[in-house]
Structures
1.
Amino acid sequence: MATIEHWIGGEFTPGRSQRRGPVFNPATGREQHEVVLATEADVDTAVTAARIAFESWSQASLSKRTKIMFNFRELVNARVKEIAELVSDEHGKVLSDAAGEVQRGLEVIEFACGIPQLLKGEYSDQASTGVDMFSFREPLGVCAGITPFNFPAMVPMWMYPVAIACGNTFVLKPSERDPSASNYIAGLFQEAGLPDGVFNVVHGDKTAVDALLRHPDVAAVSFVGSTPIARYIFEQGNAHGKRVQALGGAKNHAIILPDADLEYAADHLTAAAFGSAGERCMAISAAVAVGGAGDALVDLVNRKAGDVVVGGGRDPRSEMGPVVTAAAKQRIESLIDSGEASGAKVTVDGRGLRVPGYEDGFFVGPTVLDQVDPSMEVYREEIFGPVLSVVRADTVDAAIELINSNPYGNGTAIFTSSGEAARRFQRGVKVGMIGINVPIPVPMAYYSFGGWKDSLFGDKHVHGPEGVSFYTRAKVVTARWPHVSHAYDASLHFPTAS
Ligand code: NAD
C-alpha cells in the first residue's frame, strides 16, 4: 500500500510523524493508500520553505509569473484525464464529473494567466500642483489553503493560482480523504518552471490546520469546508492576526413555479440533486414547489431519479458514484430514516443499495422525500448526499421567505417563465449565487464565488476580482519631484491639495 507524503520545497517529504490516515476507494470500500498526517514541525518546515521562496518569488516579474502560469495551464489541460482518475478513485465521483471539476479549476488558472492586467494600479497625474499619486498592490507573503474532500482538484484551484500569480507562496492542506490530486498538481507546477517552495502540500488533520492557524509566518488563510469548521478557522485565524476567507456549508433551495417547464425543471433538479452523489456545496437539496406545481413535479422527479445509473466511478456507464466514506453513508441513511419517521414520504428510496461488483462500496441511491416540513431534521441539516427533499409553498413570496429563514445562503435557483417572478426572486433572496432556470449557478472564474450568512465567514469571495483583492494589499504613493526646491513652501498645516 503506497504512502502519500507531503510535498515541501519541491520534493516529496515523509514528515516526522508516524501517524497515518487511511485513503479509501469508496467504490470498492477498500483502503488503497495511507496518507501521512503532519505534525506542527512538518507544518513549520513547509511554511519556512514558503517563506524563503517568497523572498525571490515576490520579486519575480509579472512576465515571468505569467509565463509559468501559462505553462502550468497547458500541463493541467493535457492531464485532465490523469487528474480526474485520481479524483474518481479517492472521492468516488464518476470520471466525467471529475473531469468537469478539473475543467472548472482550469478556468481559474486561465484567469490567473491574466494577472498583469488584473494587477494594474491607478495613477492620478497632478493630484496637487507638482504632485502625482498612484497605487499598486503587493503580495501578502505565505498563504495557506485548507480544502474539503468534495472537490479535491477544483477547490484548491480556486485559491493557489490566484495567490501565486499575485506573487505569494502557498501551503495547501488538502482533505486527508482524497489527497493524491494535490501531489500530482505539485509535480505539474514544478514541470511548469515554478521555483521550489512556492507551492507546498502538507497532508493532515486538525493538528496540521491548527499549526497553520497559529504559525506567525502565515499571512492569510483560505478555507472551504463545513460551517462549524469554517467558523472556527475564521475566529482562530483572526485571533492570530491573519486575513481569512472561510467558506462553509450549504442548504441550496430551488423554487419551481407552476409556469415553469416542469420537464426541464425535473431534469435539472435530478442532475443538481444527484450529480456527484449530492456531495457538492452547490447541490440542490430542497425543491420548493409553489402553488400547484408539486404533484406533477414529484412524479417527474421520481421517474428521473429512478433512471439514474449508479456504479463505480471508473465505469463509463455510471452517472453517479458512491459517497465518500462508510460513515457518510450511514449518516445520510439515518437522516432519511429520521425524515420518514417524522412524516415525510419516501417516494424514491436509495437506502441499502447494493451495486453488483461493488458490494462493499459506500453507495446510497438517489432518494426523494416528499411532503417535507421545514421543522424536520432532514430539512434543517446539510445532508451532503443524494437526497432531494420536496417542500410545498403557496406563493413565490412564501418560498423566498423560506430560503431567507435558512441559516445558509450559498446558492439558489428559480424555475419559471416569468421575468417578473425571477426578478423578484433575484432581488429578494439573501443568497450569494443565484440561478434563473440554471440549477447550479457556479460563477465563471472571472467573477467571484461565495455565499452569504453561514456559508461564508469573511468579506471576500474566492477567485475573480475578490480573490485578487484578498491575496494582495494596496500601497498608495504620493510623489513630488521638486526641481526648484524653494518653489514649494513646507508648512506645519495638514497637507491639502493646491
Ligand atoms: P470539513 O469541514 O470536515 O473539512 C474541511 C477541511 O477542514 C479538511 O481539510 C479537514 O481536514 C479540515 N478539518 C476537519 N475537521 C477539522 C477540525 N476539527 N479542525 C480543523 N480542521 C478540520 O468538510 P468536508 O467534509 O471535507 O467537506 C464537505 C463540506 O464542505 C460541506 O459542508 C460542504 O458544503 C462544504 N463545502 C463548501 C463549499 C463552498 O464553496 N461553500 C465548497 C465545497 C464544500
Note: DSSP finds 16 helices and 23 strands in the chain.
2.
Amino acid sequence: MHSEKSTQTFERVCVVGLGYIGLPTAAFIASKGVHVTGVDVNSKFVESINQGEVPFFEPGFDVLLKRVVEEGYLVAQTEQVEADAYIVCVPTPFKEDHKVDTKFINSAVEAMAPHLRPGALVVLESTSPPGTTEDMANYILELRPDLSLDEDDENAIFVAHCPERVLPGQIMEEMENNDRVIGGLTPRGTQLAVELYGTFCTAELLQTNATTAEMAKLTENSFRDVNIAFANELSLISDRLGIDVWELIELANHHPRVNILQPGPGVGGHCIAVDPWFIVSSVPEEAKIIKMARDVNDGKPAWVIEQVKAALEGKESPTVAALGIAFKNDIDDLRESPSLNIVKTLGSENPEVDIRVVEPNVSDLPESLSAIPNLKKQELETAVHDADVVLLLVNHKEFVQMDTSLLEGKSVIDTKGIWRS
Ligand code: SAJ
C-alpha cells in the first residue's frame, strides 16, 4: 500500500514530542504524503523510530510506522527544522500546587523559535489549562519580536490548540475517526489548523477559540472523574449502611435517565487523575465539585488499605494476594495507578505481611515494588491458594474468569465487584 498524496498546502510538518500521541499523529500525517520531521529530545526514541520500530506498545501501529519511515515521509531527529506547521505534543505535568508546569512547552518553543518564519502555523496539542496556548504564543513573540500575531501583518504567524482525544490501545481507529475540537487564537489560525488535521482525520473538525478548546478537553476528563467519584462515594455510603453497592448501582441504572459508573480502588492513568486539577488550579473558587471529586477519588486507596488492615487483624504472619497493579483492566500501563500505590503502601508499612502480587500484563514488578523485601510477584492460582486475604484491585480478564471456588475460606476484598454471586 502506498501513501496518498496530500492536496493540502503543508509540505513540511514538524511534530515536537514523539510519545503516545505525537508519534502516531506524525505517522498519520506522513501517511498522507506530507513530509514530517518528528522531533524528540530522547535520542534512543529517535533511533528506534528511524528503524521503523515503535518504542511503546500500541496495537497495529507498528505496520503504519514502518511504512512511513521506509517511504521516507517520516524522519525523526533531535533538532527542530523550518516547517509550514508545527504540532507540539509534549508532556504537561503539574507541580506541587497542582498548577501546570509548562517547562516542556517552553523548551519546545525555544528550540522552534529560530526556525519560525512568517505564515507558519503552531498547534499546541498537549492538554493544558485555559490560557496556555495564548501564553505560548506570547512567549514565541518574546523570542522572535520580528514576528506578529496580528493576521493582517505580513510577518504574522498562526497559533491554535487542538487537544488529543484518543484512547491508548485504540489509536489506529480513533486518530482518524474521533471528532476534533480546534481553536485558533485568530480565525485564520483555526482555519489552518482545520486544514492540517483534515489531512488525516475523517471525522468532524469542530471550530472554536483556543481557550474553549483547552477547556473542552479538561471538561471531558473532569466529567468522567466526577461521575466515577459519585460511584466511589456510593461505595463508602453502601459499606456504612451494609448495602451491596454493585446491586444498588445496577438497580438505579434501570431508571431511564440514570447511568452511574463503577466504583473501584481509585482513579489512575495520566489523564483523568491529572486534567481536572488544571481547572481547579485556574478557578479554585468556582471549581467546587471538580475539586471534591478529585479528593474523593484520591481518598479511595486509603479506604481500601483500611479494609485490608481490618481483614488482617488477629492473623499471625498473614499472606495477602494482591491482584492487579495496572491503572485499569487488561493493559500494562502503571502510570498514576491507585492499585500500585495501595500495594506499595501495604508492603512498606506492614513488613510482617507477606504480599504476593499478581499482574499478568507485566513481566517484572516495577522497582518501587521489587525493592520491598516482603513482596514478590506470583502466578494467580498459587498466590490465591496461599493467601489469607485476597485483594482484587483490577478487573483483568484472568481474574474475572478465575475459578471462584479458590476463594473459599479466604477473606476477600473485591474493589471492582467482579466476584459477586
Ligand atoms: N474507572 C473507574 N470506574 C469507571 C470507569 C473508569 O474507576 O466506571 C477508572 C479506571 O479504572 C482508571 C480511570 O478510571 O483507573 C481512568 O480510566 P478511563 O478508562 O476512564 O480513562 P483513560 O484514562 O484510559 O482515558 C481517558 C479518556 N477520556 C474519557 O473517556 C473522557 C480518553 O478518551 C482520553 O483520550 C484520555 O483519558 C486522555 O488521554 O485524556
Note: Residues 165-167, 220-221, 224, 228, 261-262, 264, 267-269, 271-272, 327-328 surround SAJ (CB under 6 Å).
